[in-house]
Design goal:
Layout lengths: L33 H5 L2 H10 L2 H17 L8 H55 L4 H16 L14 H11 L2 H17 L8 H31 L17 H5 L2 H10 L2 H16 L11 H20 L1
Helix pairs in contact: 2-4, 3-4, 4-5, 6-8, 6-12, 7-8, 7-11, 8-10, 8-12, 11-12
């Protein structure tokens, strides 16, 4: 688009090429809709649901090497090559900055929601105290104290509490934050740490065998739930682009076509009572581990892995 777009309407949303020489559009967002300009956070969410940071780095690097290595490239001259390398580094930096901004914006909005919730509770408490003011003063004092205590000890809803009402939401929330490849590695590292811990929880060979078997079947269950998550995202119009690490490895074609059979088989083999008890012992052993943790594993990561797996298992049991 080399000519000025004099006849274009303001507020247009571009599809495809957005480069142009219209003087009023040099520093204006052209890809975003009006709603996205007002609230760009969903754009960041959508991007990082489709691409992990390392995938972005890989794609940018492939573009750069393609530009620099092609014989008919626009970057034949050394100065052009330097400019493209500089641009590549800046693009990578701004994408990482967007990732950090996304996390901070979500954190800020959660804080605002908690503040609003607390304010509403405080207003409700004042109204109740005012109504009760017509009764005996001792009764008012007791009621007010009770309401204040309820406010002080109030906690926001935990994600795992959605498992009974909306298990698919719970599954989506886990995979939005953790990739399949990462969860797969975390399960394996978590197992190695627990079996190496000097706690006595897994000294007996039979207990070690049971934990090892559970970990194997959890790997398969997680892949089946990821298939369900991927299909749900595709139904929502989100295009999933997966690298090799995030593709199912343990499922056969029948299981990929019908992942619910994997879930049914899992709970035929393991009861929820056993799973919860085993996961608790697994967590305790991994936290007590006194050696050197594998890469990307620590006491805190063991806790996060425990939470994610427990959420997935409970959600799967409700599907």
């Amino acid at each position: 688009m080399n000519e000025p777009l004099n006849s274009s309407q303001p507020g247009i949303t571009f599809i495809g090429k957005t480069y142009n020489k219209h003087p009023q559009w040099y520093n204006q967002p052209l890809r975003l809709t009006k709603d996205q300009k007002r609230d760009p956070l969903p754009v960041l969410d959508d991007f990082f649901e489709c691409y992990h940071l390392n995938e972005v780095r890989e794609t940018l690097w492939q573009w750069l090497t393609g530009v620099l290595s092609c014989q008919r490239s626009v970057a034949i001259e050394p100065l052009d090559s330097n400019n493209y390398i500089y641009f590549y580094e800046k693009i990578e930096g701004i994408i990482e900055a967007a990732y950090v901004m996304k996390r901070k914006m979500h954190k800020h909005r959660r804080w605002q929601e908690k503040k609003k919730f607390k304010k509403n509770n405080h207003s409700e408490n004042n109204q109740i105290a005012e109504v009760n003011g017509k009764t005996h003063s001792n009764e008012v004092s007791t009621t007010t104290e009770t309401r204040v205590n309820e406010e002080v000890f109030n906690k926001s809803t935990q994600l795992i509490e959605h498992v009974d009402t909306d298990p698919l939401y719970e599954i989506n929330e886990v995979f939005k934050n953790e990739s399949l490849g990462f969860l797969r590695d975390q399960l394996q590292n978590w197992l190695l740490v627990a079996l190496s811990a000097d706690t006595g929880l897994y000294d007996e060979g039979e207990l070690r065998r049971q934990l090892f078997l559970l970990q194997e079947q959890l790997q398969i269950l997680v892949e089946a739930l990821f298939v369900i998550y991927s299909r749900d995202r595709e139904k929502a119009g989100v295009k999933m682009q997966l690298n090799e690490a995030d593709k199912p490895r343990l499922l056969n074609q029948d299981q990929i076509s019908n992942p619910t059979q994997v879930i049914a088989g899992f709970f035929e083999q393991f009861s929820m009572v056993y799973i919860i008890r085993e996961l608790d012992n697994w967590l305790e052993a991994s936290i007590c581990f006194a050696g050197t943790y594998p890469e990307n594993m620590s006491e805190l990561q063991a806790l996060y892995t425990h939470r994610n797996i427990l959420r997935l298992v409970k959600a799967a049991n409700r599907l």
